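protein under study:
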Amino acid sequence: MFAALRRAVSGRVEGWARKRQGLDTLPLQLQARRLYILPTRAGLAFALLLFIMLVAGLNYSNSLALFLTFMLGGFMLVGMHECQRTLRGLELAQAQAADCHAGDDGLVELRFVNPASLPRRALAARTPGLAATAFELQRDGSATVQVKFHALRRGRQRLERIELSTTAPFGLFRCWTWLYLPIEALVYPRLAGSRALPPPSAGQQTQLSTTSAPGEDEWAGLRPYQSGDSPRSIAWKSWARGGSLLVAQYAGSGGSDYLFSFGGLESLDLEARLSQLATWINACAHLDAACGLQLPAAQASPARGATHRTALLRQLALYGEEAP
């Protein structure tokens, strides 16, 4: 019951903060009006101790006890001020989310800048439901922080909010703010895992065509290096002589090009089909095999490289969705 009540109150407070703040834009500098602060458990225990000391000092008319109580009370108020000051004026310069597969934890990169001449300690950033990423900022410095988020389903996923908090300097108070940023992540289909089917053989609707495999057939020439090319096919001698990075090409029948489609996957639902295709595409990348897609709304000729693999996975992620 208490957990449900806490979730309800937390939801109401977050909704009120979202309505009050609106959507944030980058670059963003944190102002005092959007910072919230409450005592931690240690702070509540410290306040209770001060109250007991105050009652005891008044009861026994002990000036030394009262002096110590008021001094510690001032220490607590200074700590509250410094806790809020740790976040006030902090700048968020950049925020972007990396692509990931459904069911995995994606990463969003946040770049913070500290324009002040004081360091900022005990900072933490997190998305709902995941552990916080702790970091610090030196005076007049900057830092790039990676924060995890849950990739729930295939397609475009909007990150609703990111929480930034601190307990500096003494851990007696916790100051936090919610960042409502226009961050959108692209989530690929979930990988099939142990339920993955083997790649289709020649003659099925998902076709397999023969082509070259580097290093096994007749040398055909050189081409410029592309991201994702196998290191085994790089012409290292040419590069050592001061030339550009080139990749050897071979002609023959040593390898296979895969042209994937929904053929043979009719018994699966749409998400399971896309999951299987994504698994095959990743397998081709590990084997340095060329692959392509032949789907009603996603078509691409077979090719190799990380850029081509990303393009195929993006087509699968957005399959069935209208362009924004």
The chain has two domains: 16-183, 193-317. The two ends are 42 Å apart (CA to CA). The chain has six helices and 18 strands.
